[in-house]
Structures are given as structure tokens and as C-alpha cells.
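Hi L.,

You mentioned the student needs an example of a multi-chain input paired with its predicted structure. This one should do, with 1372 residues in total across all chains.
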Amino acid sequence: MTVRVGVVGVGNIGSSHALNLARVVSGSAVSVLFDADPDRAAALAADLGARSVRTVPELFDADDVDAVLVASPDDVHAEQLLLGLPAGKPVLCEKPLATTEADARAVIDAEVGLGRRLVQLGFMRRFDPGYVQLKQELTAQGIGEPLVVHNVHRNTSAPYGLVTERTLTNMVVHELDIGRWLLDEEYASVMVVAGRPGPLTPDGQHDPILVVLRTASGVVVEVEAFANAQYGYEVVCRVTGSRGQAVMGDGSYITRSTSFSRGVDLPELWLGRFAEAYRLQLQGWVDAVQGGEPFPGATSWDGFAATVVATRAVEAYRSGGWVDVVLPPRPSLYAGPDVGPRP
Amino acid sequence: MTVRVGVVGVGNIGSSHALNLARVVSGSAVSVLFDADPDRAAALAADLGARSVRTVPELFDADDVDAVLVASPDDVHAEQLLLGLPAGKPVLCEKPLATTEADARAVIDAEVGLGRRLVQLGFMRRFDPGYVQLKQELTAQGIGEPLVVHNVHRNTSAPYGLVTERTLTNMVVHELDIGRWLLDEEYASVMVVAGRPGPLTPDGQHDPILVVLRTASGVVVEVEAFANAQYGYEVVCRVTGSRGQAVMGDGSYITRSTSFSRGVDLPELWLGRFAEAYRLQLQGWVDAVQGGEPFPGATSWDGFAATVVATRAVEAYRSGGWVDVVLPPRPSLYAGPDVGPRP
Amino acid sequence: MTVRVGVVGVGNIGSSHALNLARVVSGSAVSVLFDADPDRAAALAADLGARSVRTVPELFDADDVDAVLVASPDDVHAEQLLLGLPAGKPVLCEKPLATTEADARAVIDAEVGLGRRLVQLGFMRRFDPGYVQLKQELTAQGIGEPLVVHNVHRNTSAPYGLVTERTLTNMVVHELDIGRWLLDEEYASVMVVAGRPGPLTPDGQHDPILVVLRTASGVVVEVEAFANAQYGYEVVCRVTGSRGQAVMGDGSYITRSTSFSRGVDLPELWLGRFAEAYRLQLQGWVDAVQGGEPFPGATSWDGFAATVVATRAVEAYRSGGWVDVVLPPRPSLYAGPDVGPRP
Amino acid sequence: MTVRVGVVGVGNIGSSHALNLARVVSGSAVSVLFDADPDRAAALAADLGARSVRTVPELFDADDVDAVLVASPDDVHAEQLLLGLPAGKPVLCEKPLATTEADARAVIDAEVGLGRRLVQLGFMRRFDPGYVQLKQELTAQGIGEPLVVHNVHRNTSAPYGLVTERTLTNMVVHELDIGRWLLDEEYASVMVVAGRPGPLTPDGQHDPILVVLRTASGVVVEVEAFANAQYGYEVVCRVTGSRGQAVMGDGSYITRSTSFSRGVDLPELWLGRFAEAYRLQLQGWVDAVQGGEPFPGATSWDGFAATVVATRAVEAYRSGGWVDVVLPPRPSLYAGPDVGPRP
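Structure written out for the whole complex:
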């Protein structure tokens, strides 16, 4: 009855997931670990009462693995998924699905070839109580039809150096997915406005940037991204609708007054803000695995769509003008509404 | 048509009032100044195109003085009012009316003897847009009948040294007046809870303190006063009613994000918070003088009542228990509803 | 390795706990249920794959019960604990420990007689991230030494009718515990100010009320309780310290603008506010059971102390004056610092 | 010594200004009125103890007029200024300076021809304490160098019908001016993104719209404008800088809790938000007139620049692409820094 999970990649985020699966999430255990660094995998395995293996296929094929979590570096996601999918086991793959459109397409093709949706993608914001509540506002009783979506995404600093393309594919990709999920429609065009660079921006790169998108129905989506904002980590999403406006800021508990200022802390990293979302995502996935039910989160198709839009955003950034976004027809495997987090 | 004002006392607050009357308030001019320090009066008079005099009666009796503003030290208010009232001119007197109940009573008696309400007392919070709006909430359509009033009053530091009695008569006296004004009724009893002293509290004194009052109808009024709060100046008033709750905090324009914290500035002094209230008060008074209409602000009787309650609060502080508050019958001169700020 | 939990009382809160243990908390299962209504127990047991029993001792003694959660009505907590403690199994008991001081004392005596701390009491606010963060502010680097603690506790309505004594023993008891936990010291005296009754208050009862306490070191603790506040559920805790002030309000995600008003939702019930605290509490307890470690939450002694203070508060309410609070010496079983929630 | 003001146009805003000048602003009086509707002018003149005239030149030339305030409909501003400027008297003209670039240019040429700056333009936001404080944040000690400016401008409804061009020239023109004033530099290009229309938008028009500008130094300025937002009036300006971020929202005094919601009121019209700014602007102008000093507010050149940018915005709206903004050389008359509001 317990879901035995194999974890591919046990760096920063992978080991955090493994610990959650072993100790926080109800109904799951961690059985097998793989990492490019075999010692790292072995050490964590010892801690968790699991074992480690030397190759990705070994992990996917293991008898004591019911499901697999992939948390390896972005650029090997696709390769590992292609190796593992034939095993026919459920996979939770960290975002992004791939770093190139071709790789993303290959995964989609493989999954479609197998005829089953095996992959849930780690867009954990869909599980965040803030975004979930925001989406619930988009009704006739709430703020009405969405007209404009304004996003703010600040990182304290760019952990791997500032490359504007990566800002789009790795950071803004969250808003790209959230916009689709909030609005239940695809983007039609995208533009990137690169303005005056902040003090930590390398020559030839831009930060902050403004991404402007239009959806098929004409909703304007803005993303103000600042990867080296320095003042803290901050995510805001404001939706202006036909009847009102709703803003998802950062929930906070403590307002402190010292030295002629009253205010709240800002987290330094995303984990503090989204820890609950990560947990709910894992639990939702484990529950679906146990129950044989559809996964409640993002599918491979969602991951593919995000990659496509991010790629177009890179083009728009380079060209300075509008770039159309056109998705190929959605395979019937991915038809039907998303399930969404269960209460 | 211009109201020529004589100003008694041109220290900190007196000179600020004089400048407002001369340059900000419409329809007023400053004609004559008096100060215990004649040089200070003469210097400001030169700036304002006014003249200075050596005695208070001279000022009250001057032909070029239509009205008088008293902003001298607290403990000479009563004496100066008694000297000046016989001149029959309108007076705006800074709070408090007096520092002892006997002195306050003497002013009341003099005014009653003259048969005219000549004095408006400087409880400028009654003109503050925040308190005005808060009072408007106390209706059947708003928060309903008031049940509990919670006040927070923080000073950054006690400018003249910390003496708990003065905290009550000079600082908490604002909340004592506001409670009466908000609730339109008198207090019935008062108690002071003196707890653990803050680090800047001299031996034998207490700071912070909690003042608890009950009105005639049973409304509980709390005042958390902290004269050496250090973190800034802050005034909050929260009214819990039979249908809801309204809080008057400090309006603020700027929210700043730096160094992992998001917040707003707190003013260092009361002037920043209540500058508009001071202005509206002056203008309301000048307008009433010009129009021969009743003053829109606090009367001598209001000042007297505040002094009485403050005196009882001092007793309660000393005794540690409840002290009844009983006002003598209100002279018919002060009958009728307050006029209040005009829109 | 899985902790098999028996649940005593499966009404509102008991069934919620049972579902959490079965489906949300990692490492736990629900094996046996008891309820005064055997049909209710049997129905839930069927849902959870558990079984139900007809008596409390049967449940405590069952071989397939490793630990027991007590969520029956307040007034049978003590009786059931006395029946069950001899089984020597860990117990998580909903607050309060008992409704009379004598009953609370009997539980303490029984536990001391057994020589082991078996009971964790359900003061789940100690697990709430808001309170946890608030406590972290009480340092020399934060707001300094605590001087005044102001609590606001509003219930939308009193679910079982308004009886002021119950307001104190069942509702304010949360703040009584939190004050001890925040300040790490005992109360020295308590007073209750009963003011003007709100519109839903029965004759002879009072609501809202103001509870004022002083701790051994002189910290003033206020609790403004309003059991029929109608406008929503709200919990605020503001600590004024020697260097600043910290306020724990209600965290919120969505600010909505419609019809000339901008604001946030207030939850209707406490569950919305404290769901996470309940979960963390359960998980902390299960983990401690599995690991044979000290429980991270409130002990029986904490429950006893809360009962004593609540009893004194009732007396103070009746007498209108100060009532001293004196705890008997703390048994050595309860010596040592609290463990507190683990990160 | 009193400044006698003639007022051209006494509709909504003109009569409000006239009343302020007569009764609120210190040092001013209203002497002569003109309106296209002579009865309206005569009626207000009777109220204020002034007189009315039948032509604009009569008013400008009158011996009892020291200065003129123009508050007529937008499209006659330029014509009236051209008629009146030869009189050589100071003018406070409501924004916009003109509704076409040619008209705006004609005023500039006339003023330059006279060799004196006679006109202050009514961009009263420069006097708003919120914007003043926001500008003060743009320092090395504050949020550093400005990088992105995000504006939100919501009107409850479009009072004269929704025409997107007018949204730009009459509504967004405020942000166009504020951006120049905040950043102390000119715009280099502008684009308008017209998305999904709200429910009250006539066919062929767009609302909401997103205006994106780039300044000479590369600062990105966004304006999210919604003329029929329905939910209330709201103005927000957020500046992201090299060291942090500052947001000017709407100051508010009262937070109200009723019916499971806690929030603040939004004003229905701009007057509630900017009343103080209007007052400060008038007073600053009167003071400058009395003192023979440079006006502290916007000049004709500022008005001209705003008209140019608004015109380019209209073009960008129509073309869907970027439109360059190029101002002609600034006449030496307008050289030197702005004076700005005096404390």
C-alpha cells in the first residue's frame, strides 16, 4: 500500500524531495536513489534506509520502485525520461521538462507512443494555496472575466550567473505556466522589453526585463522579472477582471516595528514561500498513485507548452518585437480538463 | 474681514501655530505676540510683520487683536485664561486646559460667569480625518454599537523625562478626550495597570502602562501607553462594535522593500501624523470667528472633563484599584451637541 | 513502524483528526475507534478500514493500538484519561485537560504516579508558524524584553451558547497557555473586566470581556475576547518589548478589490486559520512516538496550569477584582525545557 | 497683498478651485469669473462676493485681477491662453495644456515670445505627498537607480464615454508627466498593448490598455490604465531600483471588519485621493505670486511635453508597434531645475 519511490538526482532539491517523501508525505517511502555522484546517492540512501544504484534504467526497472521522482539537472531531464518511460511507471519530473523544444517534443512523442500519461511536471505553484485561491476569484461572483494579469517575480540573486535566456526558461517559465493554468487558454504572442540594466547585470545581458504576452482571447499578461533584485524573494500575481481585481502577494504572519519602520520579512529563497506547495504536490501525487487516479498536477503537455513559450520568449527578447506563439495540436492523450489539487 | 490673532507663547508649538495662521490658514493674520522670553517674541514678530508685547493682558486687550491663541507651558494656561477671558475675545487654547482640577474648574467658572463660550481647546485629534472617519463607523450601518475601544499610544521618547503622572495628564489625555468624543458619553471608572518597566523608565515610575476605563453605559476603553517606546510614534484606535470592528491605524503612502523586509515608515514625532489635523483645526476656528458661528472643536468643558479624568487616572495609578469618575453637572452654557469639523 | 492510533471521540474534531492521521500524517494509521454513539464510531471505522469498540478501556488496551488520541467532550477528558493511562500508552488529548481544577489535578497525580509523561495536550497554537515566529522575536536582537502582550480572540459565534465561564475555560484558555509559552513564566494575578454586552449576549452573561493578567516578572497580558463577534474569526497577538513591537495577525494570500473596498477574507472558523498547526502537531507527535523521543508539544502540566489560571479567571470575573494565581510546585516529571516543534 | 484671482471656467473643477481660493488658501481672493454659461458665472460670483464678465480678454485685462486660473474644457485651453497671455499675468491652467500638439506648440511659442514663464500647469500629482515621498526614495540611500516604473491607474467609470484616445490624452497623461518628473528625463519610445476589452468597452475601443515606454536612459515605464474599472478609483506607482523597490499605494486610515472580510475603502473619485494635492498646489502658486518667485509646479513646457507623448501614444495605439518620442529642443526660458513644492 505504501508507494515506494525511486529518486533520480539527489542534489539540493532532490534530497529535499526525498526527505519529504520518506518523512512528511503520508503513504510514501523512498526505496532507491540514483545520482551522477554515486557517493552522494549512497550516503543519502544510508540515511533513509534505501539503496542506491549506478544507472537510471536500473532505478526505473527495479522491482521495489513503484514510482520515480526526477530531480536531476535541467538538461538531462529529457534523456532520463526517455530512458525510463518504457518501464511504464509514474514519474514526477521537476520543471522544466526539457531545455530545448526538440527535447521536450521527444518526451511528448515517447509518452504518446506509450499511450499513457506517466509524467507529472513539477510546476508546484499550481498547488500553492495562494494561486489556488487566486484562480477561484476568476468567476462571475468574484472579479469576473480576466482582462490583465500582472506578475512580479524577483529573485534575490541569480544563483548560477545571470543569462537572460535562462531568466526566461528557468525563472519566468513559472509565470508562463501559471498564466496558462489561471486562464485555461494558450498564449498567442509574446514580447520582451529589455530596459536599463541593474548594477549586477553582466555586459550583453538584461535584468530586469518585462515580458508581455497576449493570449488567444486577448488577455494581456505581463511578467516583471528581476533575477538580481537583491532586496529579497518576491512573487506577486495581480489579475484585473471585468468586475474587480485580485492580488496574490506573499502571506505573512509577523509585522514588526523597530527603528521608525513597520514591516514584514521577505524570504530570501523560494523554499520559504512555497514549502507548503511542494508538500501538497507530493502528497497529491502519491495519493493519485495509490488510488490509480489521474494525477492532479501539470502534465508533460503542460511542460511542453511551457518550453515552447519560453523558447518564443527568448526569440522575442533577441528580436525586440512581437513573436507569435503557436502550439501544435494537443494529442488526445492530454485531452480533458486538469484535475487540480484535491481539497 | 481678516481675523487678527494674538499668540501667547511662541515656543515649539506656538511658533508653528503662528506661522500657520500667518501663511497657511485662509482668512487669518498674526498681529501681536507675547512670550515669557521677550526677545523670542520680538524676533518672530519681526518675521511675521507683527508686534510683541510685554504682558498677557496687553495682548488680550489690544485693539488689533480679534482673537487669541494660547500656546504657553501647560501650567500657566489657566492663569493666562483667567487674565484674558474678561476681554471677551475668542480663544484657542492648547491642551490641557489646566494641570490641576482646581485650576480647570476656575476657568470653567470664569467662562460661565461671562455667560459666553469663549474657549476652544486644542484637542486637534477631533479634526483628524482618521478619527473623523472612525466616528462615522459607529452607526447601525457601520460596526454597530461600540462595545470596546482599544487605544495604542506610543511616543518615541518622553521629551521632558518620564513621570508617570505626566504620561496620564499630558499624553493619555488625548485618548481620554477622544473616548468621550467617539462615544458621546462620560466615563464612570478608571484603573491603571502598571507592569514591568521598560529599560528607560526611572526608578519609581512606570512605562508602559495600561489604562482601563468604563463609561456610563459600560463600554470598556483601554489605553496602552508607552512614552519611551523607542521604535517610533504610533497612534492606533480600534473600536469593536456589535456588528464589526474598525481600526484607525497610521495612513501611509510608501511601502519600501530593502534587505529582506517590506514595510512602511513610522513618523518620529506627532507633527508628521497630525499636521493636517492642526491645520483643519485652525481653519475651522478662524472660519467660525469670521462667521460668528459656534466653534467646531472642543470646548472648555471638554478640557475640564479631560482634566478630571486624568486626575482620577493619577489616583488610580497610585492606588492600584478602580477609581470612580464623577463629573459635576454640565453648565447649561455647554449644552447642545458638538458642532464638529465642517466638510 | 507505522503508529497505529486509537481515537476516542469521533465528533467534529475527532473525525477530522482521524482523517488526518489516516491520510495526511506520515507514519500513522488509525486502527480502533470509540464514541459514545457506537453507530458513529462504526461508520467512520468502515470508512478508514479500522474497527470500533464499545468501551474506552478496550481501546486503550487493544493490541493493535500503539497510541491514543482523545477528542471526546471536555468534561469526560479527565475520566477517560484516568481509565486509560494505566495502559501506559502515549496519548494526545484535546484541550482542555479537564473542566475543573480537581479533575485536572487527578490526571496529574495519575501521571506522576506512573512516573512517565504519557500525555501531550492539544494546545496546537504552539505549532502555529505565526506564534512560533512571534516567539522568535522575543530576543535581544528582536523586540527585546517583553513588556506587554495584547491578544485579540474573536469567534464568529459561540457554538454551544454563550456562558462567560466557558468563554474563559474553553476559548481564552488558548491565550492563557500561549502567554505562558511565549513568556516562559507563570502568571501572578488576573482580572476580568466585563463591559457593555453585545446584542447576542444572554441576560446575566458578558461578551465581550477583557482579561488582564500580570506575570511573576510584571508583564501585563491582555485578552480581548468576543465569543459572538459575528464579523468573523480573528486571532491577533501583539507583543510590545523593550526595543520594539511585533504583531501576529492573520496571514493572508488574496487582497480583493470590488465595490469601492479593498480587503482580505476572514475565515469563518478556526480550522481555516490553524489547519497547518493541527497537522504539524499531529506529525510531531507521531514522529516522537515512533522515535521514542519526548513529545514536542504541551504536557499535562501545561494543561493543568491552564486549568488553574482559567479557574482563577472565573473567580476574578465573578468578584470584579484581582485574583492571585498560584501554582503548586511543579513535579520533577515535568522538569526541563519544552522541546517545541522540530523544524 | 492678497492675490486677486480671476477664474475662467466654473464647472465642476473650476468652481471647486474658486471655493478653495476664496476660503481655504491663505492669501488669495476670487475677484472675477468667466464661464461660457454667463448665468453660472454670475451665480457663483454672487456667492463669493466677486463679479462676472462676458469675455475672456475682459477677465485677463481687469484691474482687479492679479492672476488667472483656467479651468475651462480641455479643447479651449490653448485658445484662451493665447488670448490672455499678452496681459502678462500669472496663469494656473488645468491639464492638459492642449488637446493637439499644434495647439500646445502655439502656447509655447506665445510664452517664449513674451520672454516670461507665465503658466503653471495643473499636474497636481507633483504636489501629492505620496509622489513627493516616492521621488525622495530614488537616491543611493533609498532604492538606488530607478530601473522599472509600474503604474496602475483605475477610474471607476469613464465620465464622458470611453474613447481610447482620450484615455491616453486625459487620463494616462498624468502618468506620462509623473514619469518625467520622477525620472528627470524624457521618454524615447512608447507602445500601447490593447488586449481583451472589458464589458463596458464600446466596439472599436479598448479598455483596459497597457502603455509601455522607454526613457532615454532605458528605464521601462508601464502604465496599466482601466477607465471603466468599476471597482473603484485607484492609483499605484511602484518603482524598482538597483537597491530595492518602493510602492506608492493609497494611504488609508480605516480598516473595517464586517461579514468575514477585513479591508479598506477605495474612493469613488479622484478628488478624495488628491484633495490635499490640489490644495498644496494652489497655495504654492499663490505664495509664488505674492513673493514674485518662480512657480513651484509644472510649466508650460511640461504641459507641452505631456501633449507630445500622449500624441505619440495615440499613434502607437493605432499602429500596434513602437513609436519614437522626440521633443524639440527645450527653449532656454524653461531651462533650470524645477523648483518643486516647498515644505
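You could point out the following to them. Chain C has ten helices and 16 strands. Chain C touches chain B at residues 144-145, 147-148, 150, 154, 193, 195-199, 208, 210, 212, 214-215, 217-220, 222, 224, 226, 229-231, 240, 242-245, 321 (CB under 8 Å).

Best wishes,
N.
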